[in-house]
Amino acid sequence: MQLVDDEIIVSATDLVGFLECGHLTTLELGRLDGLWDKPHQREDPEVVLLQERGDAHELAYLERLTSEGRTVHLGTKEELTTPDRLQAAEADTIAAMRRGVDVIYQATLFDGRWRGHADFLLRVDGPSDLGDWHYEVADTKLARSVKGSALLQVCVYSDRLATVQGRRPERIHVVTGDSETHTLRLDDFAAFYRAVKLRFEDRVFGDGRHDASAALTYPDPVDHCRVCVWFPTCIDRRRSDDHPSIVAGMTRAATQRLQEAGIPTRRTLAVLDPVTGVPDLNPRTLGRLREQARIQVAGEDQRALLCELIEPIAEEPGRGLALLPEPAPLDLFFDIEADPWIENGGLEYLLGLVELVGGSPLYRPLWGHDRAGEREAFEAFIDLVIDRLRRDPGMHIYHYAGYEAGAIKRLMQRHGTRVDEVDRLLRGGVLVDLYNVVRQGIRASVESYSIKKIEKFYLGAREGPVTEAGFSVVAYETWLRDGDGQHLTDLADYNRDDCVSTWMLRDWLEDRRREAIDRGWPMDRPTIQDGLPSVAQTAQQAETARRVDALTADVPADRSLASDEQRSRWLLAQLLDWHGRDAKPEWWNFYRLNELGVDDLIESGEGLGGLVFEADLEERGRGGRVRRYRFTPQDHRIRVGRPAIEPDGESGLDGGEVIAIDDI
Fold this sequence. Notes:
This protein is an alpha/beta fold. It has 21 helices and 18 strands. The chain has helices at 12-20, 22-32, 45-67, 83-99, 148-165, 187-205, 231-240, 252-260, 266-270, 283-302, 371-391, 403-415, 419-427, 434-441, 451-454, 469-482, 485-518, 535-552, 564-575, 578-595, 598-603, and strands spanning 2-4, 7-11, 72-74, 103-110, 114-128, 131-140, 171-175, 181-185, 307-309, 332-339, 347-357, 360-367, 397-399, 431-433, 442-444, 612-619, 624-631, 656-663. Strands 1, 2, 3, 4, 5, 6, 7 and 8 form an eight-stranded mixed sheet that branches. The longest helix is centred in the C-terminal third of the chain and has 34 residues, at 485-518. It starts with a strand and ends with a strand. The model is unreliable at 637-652 and 657-664 (pLDDT under 50).
């Protein structure tokens, strides 16, 4: 967004930013009005990396088009800071369109108010003011799926393109990071685009344009905060206002409902009478947020890190600190480093393990710098775990949050290997997520329950060149370019620290468990399960494995190096157990949801918690029946039916009834 001769010029990026965060538009308008300066944007290596990856992806698509024999016109990539330059750049684009070149790279489109810079314009057949041809927009994006922001940008370009060529494009194209071209009908998104554009133009060019300093918007936390240059300004504002959003686990919908109920700050929430309710906010959610606000305020006032135990709920045994299994000598502490921007679908390039030898942590890195290496590292990890399970069925693998468990499932699916062994780990409860133990078992005076925040209770400040997850990707990408082994050493140190921190967290939580027992709280250990399949399953799996091995014995792990015949055999081998593997994610999610408590289901986007049975309504065929359930407000986003979309993009369920068919 820029101001030239008291006229505002906006771009597709500004429209996307408005949709991501309305307050971002307020800040930009205030900057144009001279109310504040834009923060200095420090050089973020991760942002630079993404820009480099994006440029490389764009050039790769250009080379692909060129290799097909298409004629290409190169538009300008210089900084276009004035209307005259923008008009000249658009004139250059239009001249190339009139010549009928096949591809226009870095096309500029400008109507005096809206500027757009399309990655590519592609010539297609069909009459227009240009002749027997016209153009459609193609944009390259690093994401591996088409996102709404990309569609909005392409709609902006297509809008101006329709005027320039006298014909509305029928299609738009998004080339995702996996080099797939997604061709979509423009009309499918036109109504959405027009609605967003109308709201944006009313905000920027309407009568309220000079009210940027007024309280039109608030810097509520959104996903865009991660990459926004204004983030320091916004988080400082939230903290100075003592805004409820700085309470750990607070959602935007809950913040809105608290403020509507006259609870505008964290401190107000912290002293809220426990019997006070908030309309459309589940009482259990309100209680959790109130207690979290209380301990954060207490920690701030005392200038200390505070931690307290959460008393278990008798009706929900086996949660929190009761999730901790008995420590075993062969336990492992696990953490993964990954690069999402290489290979096709990212690469889990380092599987890190810590085991205890003589009471001290011994670190073992398993590296995989390509698909074949990734598979070898994964198989080595699973084989090591299975060997330890044979020696001690009570051993467990500890990790923090869901990435590691998800990566194990993903690697098993990606490589079609160690399927039965992974199933055994999942059935046997060998993986222990300490995040669930922390979240359900303790309450801490922190704004976030990330391991970097929680480890302050038992570990000093980290040191070294790599201390944050984002910088680990940068360090690995740097190694890919320069081959300096020091980068891998730094990454191994960082990964080792994460594994050691997980071990120390487990021991710290064991101390908290002993405190809970001293209070007389029930703390039974989880039952050890062998996770072994039935005899029939074992026989079937063995026969399938034999046939898969016979078909794929000479197929390289990197299937791009395989011959057509080898790829065909590999595909045939995968089909042998395809249905079983295809069903696994659904069953994984089913069992995961079954393990959640009522509070988690209330706040989960995939279920309802606290349902109360009302009545059987009618019988259905094959033993089914229609039942009615009642539920209190659910403060979360959920994809059930077609809930109303709230202005902030979230959907809330305000209580009512659920009609469900229950097959018995």
